[in-house]
């Protein structure tokens, strides 16, 4: 439905976007994920029409989107700051866009009623924004964005102003809503957990380029580059060369078991990534190290283990409370199926 092809945007010496191509399907919940400054907001602004690319094309349903004025694009935007009108009631805030389009009053009333019902705010229609919680204000902003029935809703870091608990609720809410209204959502975020929990597919950006586009599970389990392996979720990375069919020869750490992703030639430089929850603590075998720290998070505990020769400790995640103490010697075990071996890309 949305096709971005070879989009480049430079600001002086900075290349904010470097030949980005993406295809986003009808009804998809799509995330643009990457660290600060990687170009994701610039792409969102190009889609919305606040920015023009130096080269490349963007089409929506086969039509040239870049040729249309921002207000002629069937697109709504929801920003970090909700920018609700403080003097207007919730219902008025939501109705505002439709009133500007001079829709019949009955139609506006009906649509506003429906959309407030959808976001669970019917009982608060007469309140002013300052009489609402952060999460409720967020819902008003959402209601206002979807009431115009856009083809595409762009969300820029939509949950970053909310505290952790409200955020988790709103993530669920956003997903439910997206499902219900069937509008294509494109969300920009630097928070990989947020992207993974919300999106059907994620494009990972680094320095103006897309490094990988995949469903959350595929991105987590089969990262294709060092950057993606490191950026998406916690990971323990080891450098080395491809040993046997299922090993990385990792110098002083010996032969580490892992599954190569794709065709990797023996002797080629490669990286092994093993997720914290895939490592088992044992008495012997595998890598040896000393427990540095145990942090309890309720459902899981994170144990960091100092393995001689490594700069970064190895991170292990276990269910419930950890059974080891700082200073204790442990062995770190995993099987080839628990780790991936990927080519070194830089
Ligand atoms: P953040 O999460 O911090 O918003 P981002 O990934 O969205 O980051 P962009 O805002 O797209 O990144 O910026 C990409 C690069 O382009 C950055 O180096 C930024 O400084 C630069 N940039 C963006 N807009 C402009 C502008 N109007 N003028 C000059 N440089 C800009």
Quick recap:
The chain has helices at 40-48, 90-100, 105-118, 134-146, 164-181, 192-198, 216-221, 226-231; strands spanning 2-11, 14-24, 29-33, 55-60, 63-64, 75-78, 152-156, 184-189, 201-206, 209-214, 236-242, 247-249, 255-257, 259-260, 269-274, 280-282, 287-296, 300-306, 314-319, 329-333, 339-343. It is α+β, with helices and mostly antiparallel strands. It folds into 2 domains: 2-221, Rossmann fold; 234-343, OB fold (Dihydrolipoamide Acetyltransferase, E2P).
Describe this structure in words.
The chain is of the alpha+beta class and 346 residues long. The chain has two domains: 2-221, P-loop containing nucleotide triphosphate hydrolases (Rossmann fold, 3-Layer(aba) Sandwich); 234-343, Beta Barrel (OB fold (Dihydrolipoamide Acetyltransferase, E2P)), CATH 2.40.50.100. It is built from eight helices and 21 strands. Strands 6-7-8-3-9-10 form a six-stranded mixed beta sheet, sandwiched between helices. The chain has a six-stranded mixed beta sheet with strand order 13-12-11-15-21-14. It has a five-stranded antiparallel beta sheet with strand order 16-20-17-18-19, with no helix packed on it. Helix 2 (90-100) crosses helix 3 (105-118), helix 3 (105-118) packs across helix 4 (134-146) and helix 4 (134-146) runs parallel beside helix 5. The longest helix has 18 residues, at 164-181. The protein is globular. The model has no long low-confidence stretch (mean pLDDT 92).
């Amino acid at each position: 439905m949305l096709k971005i092809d070879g989009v480049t945007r430079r600001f002086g010496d900075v290349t904010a976007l470097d030949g980005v191509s993406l295809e986003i399907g009808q009804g998809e919940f799509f995330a643009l994920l990457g660290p600060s400054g990687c170009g994701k907001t610039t792409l969102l602004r190009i889609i919305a029409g606040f920015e023009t690319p130096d080269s490349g094309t963007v089409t929506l349903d086969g039509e040239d989107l870049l040729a249309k004025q921002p207000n002629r694009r069937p697109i709504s935007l929801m920003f970090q700051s909700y920018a609700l009108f403080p003097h207007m009631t919730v219902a008025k805030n939501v109705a505002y866009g439709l009133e500007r389009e001079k829709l019949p009053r009955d139609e506006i009333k009906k649509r506003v009623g429906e959309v407030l019902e959808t976001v669970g705010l019917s009982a608060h229609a007469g309140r002013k924004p300052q009489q609402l919680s952060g999460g409720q204000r967020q819902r008003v902003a959402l209601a206002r964005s979807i009431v115009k029935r856009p083809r595409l809703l762009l969300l820029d870091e939509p949950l970053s102003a909310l505290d952790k608990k409200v955020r988790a609720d709103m993530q669920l809410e956003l997903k439910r809503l997206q499902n219900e209204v069937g509008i294509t959502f494109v969300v920009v975020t630097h928070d990989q957990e947020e992207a993974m929990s919300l999106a059907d597919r994620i494009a990972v950006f680094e320095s103006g380029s897309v490094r990988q586009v995949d469903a959350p599970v595929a991105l987590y389990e089969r990262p294709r580059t060092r950057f993606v392996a490191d950026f998406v979720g916690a990971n323990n990375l080891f450098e080395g060369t491809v040993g046997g069919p299922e090993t990385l020869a990792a110098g002083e750490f010996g032969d580490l078991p892992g599954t190569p992703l794709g065709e990797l030639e023996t002797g080629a430089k490669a990286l092994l990534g093993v997720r914290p929850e895939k490592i088992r603590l044992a008495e012997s075998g595998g890598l040896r190290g000393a427990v540095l720290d145990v942090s309890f998070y309720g459902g899981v505990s994170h144990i960091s283990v100092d393995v001689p020769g490594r700069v970064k400790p190895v991170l292990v995640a276990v269910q419930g409370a950890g059974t080891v103490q700082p200073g204790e010697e442990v062995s770190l075990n995993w099987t080839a199926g628990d780790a991936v071996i990927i080519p070194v890309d830089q």
